[in-house]
């Protein structure tokens, strides 16, 4: 009887250890040498680098034309030159691919909450990049909310966890004030994956509302999400926040989908040619 209890306790302990401290990296499969609640090796984490090269000064899209080098500080992608976004500026830490994409998925779908601490440090870097542009006074930090049904299924809002991890680093002292209740997702939308830009806009239209507009009146807002894909979600949120009285909306995300294909490069070159001809 004693040996059976000992064996059972040992099995439970091994099971708990395997759950809390996995033996292999979730990204590359390499055995983990150090005990950690995050099942990702240091090599994979180190490979997650910030976005390099010229990017749009408004939305953060990659610029692949010579336009990026003509006036880098004010360079805009073709879309932002044609249509002014509802936000002042959007910044992201890294490209939504490879290890960074998998790390975000480990948090969102694998329920590995310690991943939020690493992602929070990345978010803290891009918030620090925005900080010099903030006006006087406090800035309301608003994570993009989940619908109540999705929140019950997942058990947490991943954007909120990442935001809280970033703010624990005490960026800007007390200037950044977290408010997770002011913006609500009033309608549960289908996944944006696989939808065109137009379908994404229709899918997300009217999905958000501001519960307490008096907490935004005349104040700048920093909207936070995990990924900036086409910008449809954050743009809809920004419009709702501005209509509720926010003076400006800034966007910070951990990752961003970047365009780098040849077709996009050709479009940028064509637009550059038309711009130069118009001013020539």
Description:
The N terminus and C terminus are likely disordered. Helix 6 crosses helix 8. 41% of the residues lie in helices and 14% in strands. The protein is globular and about 50 Å long. Strand 6, helix 10 and strand 7 form a beta-alpha-beta unit. It is α/β, with parallel strands linked by helices and 280 residues long. The strands form 2 sheets. Strands 1-7-6-2-3 form a 5-stranded parallel beta sheet, sandwiched between helices. The chain has a two-stranded antiparallel sheet with strand order 4-5. It is built from 11 helices and 7 strands.
Descriptive key words:
280 residues, alpha/beta, five-stranded parallel sheet, 7 strands, 41% helix, disordered N terminus
Secondary-structure blueprint:
Blueprint: H1 2-20, H2 42-46, H3 67-70, H4 78-82, E1 89-95, H5 98-108, H6 115-130, E2 139-143, H7 148-154, H8 158-167, E3 176-178, E4 183-185, H9 197-204, E5 208-210, E6 220-228, H10 232-243, E7 248-256, H11 262-279
Helix pairs in contact: 6-8
Describe the structure concisely.
This protein has 280 residues and is α/β, with parallel strands linked by helices.
Distance from N terminus to C terminus (CA atoms, Å) equals: 92 Å
Give the spatial strand order of the biggest sheet: 1-7-6-2-3
Structural class: alpha/beta
Beta-strand content bin:
5-15%
Enumerate how many helices there are, as a single number. 11
Total E-strand runs: 7
Q: What ranges have pLDDT less than 50 throughout 5 or more consecutive residues?
A: 2-11, 66-70, 261-280
Q: Helicity, in percent?
A: 40-55%
Instruction: Give the SSE string.
Output: HHHHEHHEHHEEHEEHEH
Q: What would you report as the Rg, rounded to the nearest angstrom?
A: 21 Å
Shape: globular
Mean of the pLDDT scores? 82
Biggest sheet layout:
5 strands, parallel
